[in-house]
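Schema walkthrough. Field components (list of strings):
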Amino acid sequence: MSSTVIYHPSSYRDPSGFIFEKEGVIYRQVNTCFKEHFDHFTQSGCYKHLVEKGLLIPHEQVPENLTGDKSYYATLKPELISFISYPYEWSFAMLKDAALLSLQLVKEALNYEMILKDATPYNIQWHKGSLLFIDSLSFEKYRETIWVAYRQFCENFLAPLLLMHHSKQPLHQLQLAYLDGIPVDVASNLLPFRSKLSVHTYLHIHLHAKISAKKKNVTGSSQRFSKQRLLNLINSLESLISKLNIPYRQSTWSEYYDEAAKRNNYLTEKKKIFEQWINELPGIKKAADLGANDGEFSQLLAAKNISVIAADFDSYCINNLYKNVKSSGIKNIQPLIIDLSNPSPAIGVNSEERDSFIQRCKADLVIALALIHHLVIGKNIPFEKAAEFFCKIGDNLIIEFAPEEDEKVQLMLKSKKDIYIKYNEQEFLKAFDKYFSVIDKKPITSTNRVLFY
Amino acid sequence: MHSFLLYIDPGSGSYLVQVIAAAVLGVAFFFKNIKLYIRSFFTRSSKKQKDTPST
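Field assembly_structure (string):
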């Protein structure tokens, strides 16, 4: 492990401090210029209160200048987040909860005469079954001025939520295109006319866009803005966001398990084989359930104390899974919207600010159940490329193969005559043999499908 | 000092929007509170009537 300091490529915006890695440990340095605010944050009891309420990541203070930097004031060792996810991978409900958490933090911090100086979803992560704010340097002393992060909040949280609410479409990928948030003028133009009938939406988006377009170089950020006025603003955002919703819509995959359960003993038998293998596998701590759907199998893994990344491209399934995980208090499932034929790329400055899904998702075990035929037939992805993708995610793989005689495969092949390879078990095994070796193979007797480990 | 406090651009016009929004919302919340007070007054009195045991 390197003893050199590795500066985190995304931690460069805020001069108050930065994230770095040394000897495999993640630290945060507080710079001297932020001393006054950081001291107030810890001494006023704000930090303790937020950590006790489970809203902020706890940290240990390390009494050492690990970077040797002249601007050093303090070193913090925050609790480690096992997996970093980004808002363009979150479901509607998760983004909504993150927005409400930011507003709650503003209100809580105000009780300690502090305020949130930035409002970006990248400062919020899913950790041990709930959303948590991870940047301890985002709190500065409240000086009765406007909320500096107001526009950032509107563009990063409010705009995407409103667009999804009004269009009833999962538009999470818009945040991939607009890394700094959807500009208010873009949101204002995309929103339907009826959105102007809501006072809150009109003020925070439409009027915001109109004034921003006209008033150049007028910020007035140092002028007095009372606490009551600020609270009016926060309460308005809170009341607007808490009413936003994306209606449940039956998608292609939302009823998958209900339908699958009806196929003789298919699901029961599959679960039985799966559980048997999981029990036999030693030392599995992290798993990636690709094509997780409603997370039936993710939950089986979670019950065995395995942390699971449950990824699926169907946003409705992932939204349901998120709500389910949240309400049942499951701490080790992270539901994410990932298109497996186009996983999140590396983006930002030098394309290294936000890592790709493949860079971040390192698991001991990959689960690909009832998935391969969708990738190969549905998306024309060669078996070999699919195998390479699974291999990049993890060393062990449990995969279900549906042969060409399978009813569902037949249906897919009927409408997909342009498939470039022969779809059969022999071709499948030949391609996967380059990356994995078969340890066990079990047929699901009620169907002609086979599970491989 | 302010150069570091404002490491993110609050946005041109953001001050004015916040001032206008806060003023409009102030009036809106004022009337909402009056409405809630009146509603709670009536629900309280009707509750009291219900709670009063009939003789």
